Amino acid sequence: MAKVLELFGGCGGLGFGFHEQGFDIVACNEYDPNIAKTYKHNFPETNVIVGDITDKSVKQKIYDVFSKSLCDIVLGGPPCVAYSMSGKRNSRDPRGKLFNDYVEIVKMLNPKAFIMENVKGILTMMHDKQELTPEEKVIADQYYLLEKEKENLLEEKKNISFNNEIGTEKSEINKQGIKDVNKQIAKMKTQFPIFRMKLTDIIKKRFNDIGYSVKMELLNSANYGVPQKRERVIFIGTRNDLNIDINYPTETHNRDGNNGKLKWVSVKEAIDDLKDLPEDGSIQQIYTKHNDKFIEKIENTPQGKSVNPKYTEAFFRCDEDKPSNTVKENHGGVFIHYEKHRVMTPRELARLQSFPDDFIFKGSKSSMLVQLGNAVPCGLSSAIAKEVLNAL
């Protein structure tokens, strides 16, 4: 039985498919102790190491676990905050460089292969080159200051949006500030090749340097029977000395159900049987209480639109006959039910992420939403795990 290490485990969405396919996930690392409780509950045989992966003592705990057995596979998706297409993108966000720790652990454990996932935004993300001359660093620092200024202005814009009492004058000043910074950023783009390169190329090179061949592909979860159009970049790395070839999973579904494939699974197919259940905390069918004003807004929101026209994701009313958009935590602004005048429950969102009903999330409701928003859909992880199993 192949031995596996899962990094950045979260609640266990990526690991789920590997557990399901019979892999032995010997150890998992998760930074958040509350989220780690979910992993421990659902996968009690796995040694869950809680702590910051950048901490040498945490790394040592991982190495100690594998001191008596080889590690065959490393899994994990470094946090995607710095790469996300929604909101701010900070190329020097420390969370955007956690792949360095991933590389370090792969080098130490020397597994046969690794699977690393991330958001679609990583495809267009640029990072500073690994080594910069003093002159190149000056230009890089100038650009970074602009990024930070934009980040602060976007945060200010968010606060203005949620506090109408601030007034329109400050809003206009904020808009102009963002425009000005964007112009300065645009002017500097011609200098990118001096100090930056595509993050995906940096990642590939780092793994190439320690003896791994790497390929990557953008996969849409809906094409694997998940009732959600969640796209994830999947890196597959294999050790050069082993002659292993791991294929990407063959798509089983498509939008129209043609060319010998099944039709995408719709939101209604996934969750319709839950809509009239009484609240049941044991399966996380937990309802949110809305005030009359918000319910009225929901009633006037058609499928395919958001309760607030300013946002395309928060409080979006799902189309019943299509897969959902990407499940996100959105600070509680989760999807609106296609029929009921309320937001979806954690269990309904879990269904959209293809978690089985006996998968129990620990923690508060807000913590459950965070876990769900960060998870890899189980249907996608299972499809990937099957291909890894076939290759090994």
Describe the structure in your own words:
There is one protein chain. With 392 residues, the protein is α/β, with parallel strands linked by helices. It contains 13 helices and eleven strands. The protein folds into three domains: 199 residues, Vaccinia Virus protein VP39 (Rossmann fold), CATH 3.40.50.150; 67 residues; 108 residues, DNA Methylase, Chain A, domain 2, CATH 3.90.120.10. The longest helix has 28 residues. The N and C termini lie close together (10 Å).
Keyword list:
392 residues, alpha/beta, Rossmann fold, DNA Methylase, Chain A, domain 2, 3 domains, seven-stranded mixed sheet, two-stranded antiparallel ribbon, 13 helices, 38% helix, globular
Task: Write a concise synopsis of the structure shown.
This protein is α/β, with parallel strands linked by helices. It contains 13 helices and eleven strands.
